[in-house]
Write a structure and sequence with these properties.
By secondary structure, the protein is of the alpha/beta class. It is 34% helix and 16% strand.
Length: 435
Amino acid sequence: MPFTQLGLHSSLVRGVQAMGYVDPTPIQLRAIPVILSGSDLIASAQTGTGKTAAFALPVLNRLGPHRPGQPRVLVLEPTRELAAQVETSFRDLGRFTDVRATVLHGGVGYGRQRSELRHGVDIVIATVGRLLDFLQEKALRLDQLEVLILDEVDRMLDMGFIHDVKRIVAMCPKKRQTLFFSATVPPEIEAVARFALSNPVRVEIGVARSVNESVNHALFPVLHEQKFDLLLGLLAKTDFQSVIIFSRTKHGADRIARRLKSANHSVAVLHANRSQNQRVEALEGFKAGRYEIMVATDIAARGIDVAGVSHVINYDVPENPEDYVHRIGRTGRAMAVGDAFTLATPENSGDVRDIERFIGQKIPQLTLESFGYVGGKSPAIDTSRPNRPAPRPQQRHGDRHSTPRRDSAPRAPRSEPAHHPRGKPGAHWRRNSGR
C-alpha cells in the first residue's frame, strides 16, 4: 500500500515524496492508521524500521494548520541527539505545512529555546531534564496538549528517567492521545503504560530481540592485548563506506579515536562528555563523509539515523544484550545490507553467551587471515560454560577494556586489496575452527 492510500493529507504525501520515500515500512503501515483513528498505541519494532515517520506523519495530519498558543504535541526523547533528529524529521515531513516545531534539550543555552516557545509552537520535542526546567519556570504549559509521544521508552528506563516521565505525564491533560514507541517492552514499561495509556492498541513488528536480517554479524575472538591491532587489520582489509566503532566508556572512546588518528584515519568522537557543538559537528561531519569513522559510546546506539553506515565494530562487547541489537542496528538500515563485527576476548565469554541467548542464535566466530595472532591462532570464545570467567584484574582510567600503549603488530598497509565478504568466510577471514 503506498502512502497515498493511508489517508494522509496531500501536503504530507508531498513531504514524504520529497524525502525520497516510496512505500511505507511495516511499522508505518500498522501504526499510522491506528494513530489516525485517535487510539492510544504501544508500538515496538526493530531499530531502523522507520518509527519516527510512523508517528510524525499521522500527528502532523491531525494538527492541521499552525495555531498560536501552547504546544499541542509533546515528544519526549532520552537524548539530545535523538531529540534533534526527531525535530528534523518533523520539519522535513511537514515542509509543505505551516506547523511549527521546536526542540528543547540541554548542552546549549536557554535563550533561543525560550524565544521559540514565546512565539508559539505546535510541537515540542524535548529531553526530560530541559523540559522540566521550562515547566518549573512556567515558560511552558501542557494544558493544551492533544498528543503525548514517549519515544525510545526502554532507553528512558535504562537511563533512570521513568520517575520524571511519570511526573510529566501527570501534568498533561487526561483527555489526550498517548503513543509509546520502544524497541522492547519489558515489565517496567508495562507498568508505566498502565499509568499513561488508555486501552492502547499494540503493534509489534518483527521480534524485538532479533537482529535485523539485513545485518551480517560475527565475532572476531582475540586476546585483549591484540584488540587494537586486530581493529586496524579489519579496517585495512575491509571495503567500508563508513564505520561506527563502539566503546563501553567515554575514556575508551577517546583513546581509540586518538590511536586511529595516529594511524591516519579520519575520526569523529561522540559521547556524553563532548559539548553540544562538538557532538553536532561530529554527527554532521560523519553524515557528510568528512569522517570515515565515528567512535562512540552507547549514546549513539539508539535512534541515530545515519544513512550509508556500511559497518559497525564493537570494540568492546556490550554489557547489556539489548545494546548489542541496537548497536549493530546502526548498519543495514532501511533494508540495506550491512556488516557488524565484535572483538571478543576470552574474558567476554559470559557477555557473549548472554547476547546469544537474548537473540536466540549463535554468533559465528571468524578469524582474520594473515593476522599475527599470539600463539599462531585465534582464541575461541566458549559460550557453553555456565559460569562467567573472572573479570580482568587490571583496569586503567575507569575503562574495563582499555587498550595497551604499545602496538604489538604493525598495521596492514592500505595498499592491500580490499575485500567485503558480507560476513561469510573469504580471502581475508574464515570461520574459527576452535569454536
